[in-house]
Amino acid sequence: MNKTTKIIIWVVVAVVVVAGIWYGVSRKPAPVAEKEPVKIGVILPLTGEAATYGISDREGMLLAIEKINAEGGINGRKVRLIVEDSEGDPKGGISAFRKLVEIEGVKVIMTELSSVSMAIAPLVKEKQIVMFSIAGHPELTRQSEFIFRNYPTNTSIGGVTAELVMERLNLKKAGIMYINDEWGASLANAFREKFKGSIKMESFGSNDKDFRTQITKLKAFEPEAILVLGHSNVNLGIALRQIKELGYNGIILSTLEVSYPEVLETAGEAINGVIYSDLNIDYENNPVAKEMKEIYVAKYDKEPDLSVAFAYDMTNLLINAIKKGGYEVGGIKDELLKTKDFEGVFGKLNINEIGDVEFTLVLKIFRNGKSELYR
C-alpha cells in the first residue's frame, strides 16, 4: 500500500467519523417546547378608594394559582394571571377589558366591583368572554349567559339582614345611614322593602368623614337600631365611632363589610356590640378554609379577610371549570353552570341557573373586639 492510498483511506475514515458524529447530534430530540399557559385576565381596583378589596382579591387569586401550578397546572399547562388596575373606575375597567381580550387574547376574566363589572357586561356579551365577578349588583348575571358571580347580591344582603333582625331582634323602628352610591342605595332600599316597621334614611358621600348631621337626625327619630352601610375604607369605621360618641345607646347594625381590618382599626372600641349579617367560614373544621388560612398567614403574615376568601374560591371554581371544559368559552360556561357541592372556603358551593354562587347569611356580633355568631 503506497503513501497515496494510505492518505485516501485515512481521509475516508475521518469523513465517516465526522459524518457519524453529525448524524448522532442531529438525531438528538429537539427540546420539548413548554406548553402555552392558560391565561386568565383580572380587572381589580388596585389603586383608588376601593384598593382594599382589589389588593386582597389579588392575594387570594395568587394563592390559588400558586397552588394549582405547584400541582402541575391545568392538564400540564401553567396558569398565568394577567392583572389590570381599573382604579375602581368603569372607564378604567373598559380599557382593561379591551387590552386583555384584544391584545392578550384571554377567554375568561375575573373582576371586582359592581360599577366596573356592569360597565364591562355589554362587552362580555358582545365578545362572548366568560366573566366571573365579586360584585353585588342584583342584575349583573342577567346581562349575559357568560357572566357569573361569587358574592351575595345587594338585594339579598339588604333583604336577608332585615328579615334576620326582625326575627331575632323584633325591631319595629330603624334608621339607616348609607353611602350614597349604587351599592349603598340598593342595600338600603332592599332593607326598607323587607322591614315591616318605620324607617328613616340618611345618606353620606364616599369621601365624608363627619357624620354628625346624619346621626343627629337619626337620633331625633328615636330608632331602636341604626343600620350603617359603608365600604371598608375609613369612613365606615369613623361613622360607627361617631354614633357612639354622640351618645346613641340603641342597637347598631351593619353588613359583612364591617369585619374588614381597616374598619376594626378605625372604629376601635365602638365596634363592640355591633350586630351584622355575614357569611360563616369554619376555619377549624373546613379543610379547604383551614389550608387556605395557613398558607395565607405563612405568606403574608396576617389574617385573610373576606375578599381573600371570595377571590380564592372564585379562582378555584374557574380552574375546576377549565379543567373539565377546556380553555374554551363554551366549555367553561357549561362547566360553571354544572357546579354542585364544590368544596370551598365558604363550604359546599353551588352555582344556580343564572350564574350566581349561592350563599347563606348569618347574624354575628362583635364582643371584646372579636366576631362571634349572634345567639
From TrEMBL:
Residues 37-350 form the Leucine-binding protein domain. Belongs to the leucine-binding protein family. The chain crosses the membrane at residues 7-25. One of its GO terms (biological process) is amino acid transport. This is Leucine-binding protein domain-containing protein. It comes from the Bacteria. It holds the Pfam family Peripla_BP_6. Keywords: Amino-acid transport, Membrane, Signal, Transmembrane, Transmembrane helix, Transport. Signal peptide: none annotated.
